[in-house]
Design goal:
single chain, about 425 residues, mainly alpha, 21 helices
């Protein structure tokens, strides 16, 4: 076990891609345990042998097509139409745009890249500091992995064998709580900093068109969740429906999608999907080696330490995941640690849905945590600012989102109510 851990940390410190880090560490561990080399190939195959994982490329492709269809601008205009008349309206509009766009992209990185191109570049013209605009975009992007459809929740479902549609529904209230937490910080800044008024205008475009086009986009997650719940199609088939709906909007309604844009979306989707599957395959090797080495027994031994105190166990998991999220992206961390920790949580009487949402959200916040936070790097590149300046503006929003995590730990209702209500 110590050998695998040492190799893992050393390769990670050298900047080796995470898929190769896990694959090499797991392979060395399996050789050290005198296991047959054939098992490496078998465990890599088992790591991606899940029907639900077929949904991931569809959701990624739908998000890419949406980005190339002018969807982002339409969602931003709808958001600004709602919030633009109040002081700090553009700041509030960035949060509302993040909520709406998270129902399209399904990833924090996608939200940061798409919304950052608009808000990080435009908000300074209204008097906002560039680092403040970037902090708003990064904080809002944390909603992406929670609100359906979420690629991260698809991966979690494949690993945990929980219903992906239940995970989607369970993420709705926590996602709105995140948005409310960020909005509260903005409201505080309105009174303490006097945030500028918005200069947004429709430039003569009819209100009905802005609202109508925005609602056409917002209907996508409603169609996906509603169709899956009613049994019209499975969650994987819902991904195909999302792609078809996006193609219709982009080619016939908005008329922004042509053969070149579709081809580029397919190329990007193939690259992202391949990287996800490679990570999952490699993590299957590492997970098997760790399990064979006896880490499962060690983790189960943690149960008696928290006997009768499931809340303390959840807080311990949160603290552990804060450290993990700072060095690992959510996908690999889910594959490695969920099979170990979820059975312990279940044995302690913790609702799997609550555990899942807290787990995913805590890991997602690692994308906004130095030194590895990918969303930070994207925002810094778009705004051409330093990491220190960005995190200096981000920390109030970061604290608010951590408070939401604490709230989800203390009140399971936020994660479970909608699922229990809909499932009866």
């Amino acid at each position: 076990m110590s050998l695998m851990a040492g190799i893992f940390v050393a390769l990670l410190a050298l900047g080796v891609p995470i898929a190769f880090v896990m694959g090499i560490a797991g392979s060395v561990g399996m050789f050290a345990l005198d296991l047959k080399p054939m098992l490496i190939a078998q465990r890599m195959f088992n790591g991606v042998d899940s029907f639900i994982l077929l949904a991931a490329p569809f959701y990624i492709l739908a998000g890419e097509l949406m980005s190339r269809s002018g969807i982002t601008q339409r969602l931003v205009r709808l958001s600004m139409l709602i919030t633009g008349h109040v002081r700090g309206g553009t700041a509030f509009g960035s949060v509302l745009s993040a909520v709406l766009f998270s129902g399209i992209s399904g990833t924090a990185v996608g939200d940061t890249a798409a919304l950052g191109q608009i808000f990080i570049k435009e908000m300074p013209r209204e008097g906002y500091k560039t680092e403040y605009a970037a902090a708003l975009v990064v904080a809002g992007s944390m909603i992406g992995p929670i609100v359906p459809p979420s690629v991260t929740l698809v991966i979690f479902s494949a690993v945990s064998q929980l219903s992906v549609i239940d995970l989607f529904i369970a993420g709705i209230i926590p996602g709105l709580l995140l948005a409310a937490g960020v909005a509260c910080v903005i409201l505080f800044h309105v009174f303490t900093r006097g945030l500028p008024r918005s200069r947004f205008s429709l430039d003569g475009e009819p209100v009905w068109r802005v609202v109508g086009e925005g609602l056409l986009v917002v209907m996508l997650p409603v169609i996906l969740v509603g169709g899956a719940l009613s049994g019209i199609f499975t969650t994987t088939e819902a991904g195909g429906v999302a792609v078809l709906y996006t193609l219709i909007l982009g080619t016939t309604v908005f008329r922004k999608l042509g053969p070149a844009e579709i081809w580029q979306a397919l190329i990007v989707t193939a690259r992202i999907s391949a990287s996800i599957y490679l990570v999952l395959a490699a993590s299957g090797v590492l997970s098997y080696a760790m399990t064979t080495a006896g880490i499962s027994g060690w983790v189960r031994g943690l149960g008696p330490l928290f006997a009768g105190h499931p809340t303390y166990f959840m807080f311990a998991i949160v603290l552990f995941l804060i450290g993990v999220g700072a060095v690992l992206e959510p996908g690999p961390a889910i594959v490695i640690f969920v099979p170990l920790l979820l059975p312990v949580a279940r044995a302690m009487g913790i609702d799997p849905l609550q555990f899942s949402i807290v787990f995913v959200l805590t890991l997602a916040l690692g994308l906004s945590t130095p030194p590895i936070g990918l969303c930070l790097f994207i925002a810094c590149k778009i705004g051409r600012i330093s990491m220190g300046k960005l995190f200096g503006a981000l920390w109030p929003f970061f604290v608010a989102e951590k408070f939401v995590v604490v709230l989800l730990v203390l009140v399971p209702w936020f994660s479970t109510y909608l699922v229990h209500l809909i499932r009866g």
